[in-house]
Amino acid sequence: MTKQRIVVGLSGGVDSAVTAYLLKKQGHEVIGIFMKNWEDDDDSEYCSSNIDFVDAAAVADVLGIEIEHVNFAADYKDRVFSEFLREYQAGRTPNPDILCNAEIKFKAFLDHAMRLGAERIATGHYARVQYDPKSGLHELLKGRDASKDQSYFLHRLNQAQLSKSLFPVGELHKTEVRRIADEIHLPNAKKKDSTGICFIGERPFREFLNRYISKEPGPIKNDKGHTIGQHVGLSFYTLGQRQGLGIGGLKAKGAQRGSGNHAPWFVARKDLESNILWVVQGHDHPWLLSQTLLAQDASWVSGTPPNAGDTAAKTRYRQSDAICNIESPANNSFLLTFTDAQWAVTPGQSAVIYRGEVCLGGGVILSN
User: What are the domain boundaries of the chain?
Assistant: First the structure.
């Protein structure tokens, strides 16, 4: 690749820091940008934005590159957070990181970088982009490190966005990224990876949601229809949830001795009309298993739906690809039928489609 002006999203973490280093080493003109996407809790114990900027600035200093602090908080609130709240209020469980990538990192940030005269942007995501001269398309591939692959979160990126994006650490394993950071004495070489949703940070999730969503308590019922507790509001629970139900040691009514009546409880269904939270005992209860799913709001990397037929999919980030058949793929929706039933398929989460290493796109789960 000829020398280019590349703007790197420096988050304060080790992955974006090594990304900037690798590109500078290749001879590119590298500019760092720190994206501030949330400002409501700047002075709270849970918001690490200020610390992250200090770390990003220290990295830029070591690498000898410029860094700019850019505030995208208004865009984020409008395009990501408002949608996040809408989905929760509708009883679904959204994934704001996916929306953040599509709307902020690869739209607002990309636009800003282009205004700075950049030819490309780069981030510390574990994924790869490959140009296929035969089809004339950019393909989104899984990262080399299967345990860190983040193509799931990038599946809404389109051809225009991918053509301008670089993911240098996608070619590496995390251990190698840490080794490089250590070797070149980056100040954040040993900084632990951030987890969770960026605007919530390490804060207890229910405490955060309490500020924005009104509670409407109602009954918790088991699969026999018995009321066994009270929920605090359906928005505060997600399918497959095991913790925080307040019914931990309760026996199932009518259960026989030795029949697994102390098995853990899981959220299995949410009845919004009746305001009932349905729970079941045992990880493999039939109510928790789905052979099919319908997804809407589909987004395809190539710009057109894939052919119907055998493929693989993830219905949540931390899972192996599940063999399935994609039926009726359209611009806006598709149906998946799985070879093996999938656990706790959750409306609002994303079903992301793969053929081998290639991520084809995906959609938001509507029903299972």
Answer: 5-205, 215-283, 287-367
